[in-house]
Write a structure and sequence with these properties.
- The protein is of the alpha+beta class.
- The chain contains six helices and eight strands.
- A four-stranded antiparallel beta sheet has the order 1-2-3-4, with helices on one face. The chain has a four-stranded antiparallel beta sheet with strand order 6-5-8-7.
- The longest helix has 25 residues.
- The radius of gyration is 27 Å and the shape is elongated.
- The N terminus and C terminus are likely disordered.
Length: 258
């Protein structure tokens, strides 16, 4: 079940990322970026000269010829992420947008970043970077069980046990009106203490003793280019409640006058 939830999270993240990209980058900005990538592929940089910062255009001419043979001719440009940054110097603000694309096929893929700023004449490219890869950039960190070892399966089991224990404790708290300060037990039981995090792609793991997770576990991916990070924590309060539940349900001792 946890695996299914992680996969669903990935699909939802991809959907929301697409919506974010459409919000951050205008159709004109995306068009300028795509035309620039196509010009790099074809070598026809003159067709995009008007949308490139002059100094950058001269630098691009110098390196594009050597770069061109290694760039695939595929045109399946996919806008993966958009990053926005605003800089203010001497009271003047400039907003930069980095549009990150991937394209290619087979064993030849390119991750291209096109940096644009807005000018009176429209979007202008002020920076770019391209990296050729043998693998599709956004698939390297995908959630998959292929090639995974005992540590990865242990981590999934720990996540299930942590969250399952917390949920079970919360259900018991809800069904135990006799327990005093139920709301305090509910808050404490809903949190797992400590953070144990696994890089799903590399198998590297780390511990943050002072961290915590709501409902005991979490799965997140910083960006489509990064691997999944799976985390769990220890349901200490939930376990204490489940062990002491009967004692906590006992009322105060009554004094007999018989």
């Amino acid at each position: 079940m946890r695996i299914i939830l992680v996969i669903l999270s990935l699909l939802l993240a991809a959907c929301s990322q697409s919506q974010v990209n459409d919000t951050l980058a205008t159709p004109q900005e995306k068009s300028v970026a795509v035309r620039f990538i196509a010009a790099i592929q074809s070598g026809d940089l003159a067709s995009v000269k008007g949308s490139v910062e002059p100094k950058l255009y001269a630098q691009t001419l110098a390196v594009a010829r050597s770069l061109q043979p290694g760039v695939p001719k595929a045109a399946n440009y996919k806008l993966v992420t958009v990053a926005v940054q605003t800089n203010t110097v001497n009271g003047t603000s400039q907003t930069l947008k980095a549009l990150n694309y991937e394209f290619g096929a087979g064993n030849t893929w390119v991750l291209a970043q096109i940096v644009e700023t807005d000018t009176p004449g429209g979007p202008q490219i002020v920076g770019w970077h391209a990296a050729v890869s043998k693998h599709q950039p956004t698939t390297r960190g995908e959630f998959t069980l292929a090639g995974k070892g005992a540590l990865h399966y242990f981590w999934l089991l720990a996540m299930v046990l942590s969250t399952g224990t917390i949920v079970a404790a919360l259900i018991l708290i809800g069904r135990s009106p006799e327990v005093q300060r139920r709301w305090l037990w509910a808050i404490g039981s809903s949190l797992g203490l400590g953070q144990f995090t696994l890089n799903w792609m590399t198998g590297d793991w780390a511990i943050r003793p002072l961290g915590f997770f709501l409902l005991g576990s979490a799965a997140f991916r910083p960006s489509p280019f990064d691997p999944w990070m799976l985390s769990f924590s220890l349901p200490i309060v939930a376990v204490i409640f489940m062990l002491r539940r009967k004692a906590l349900m006992r009322g105060p001792d009554e004094t007999s006058f018989d």
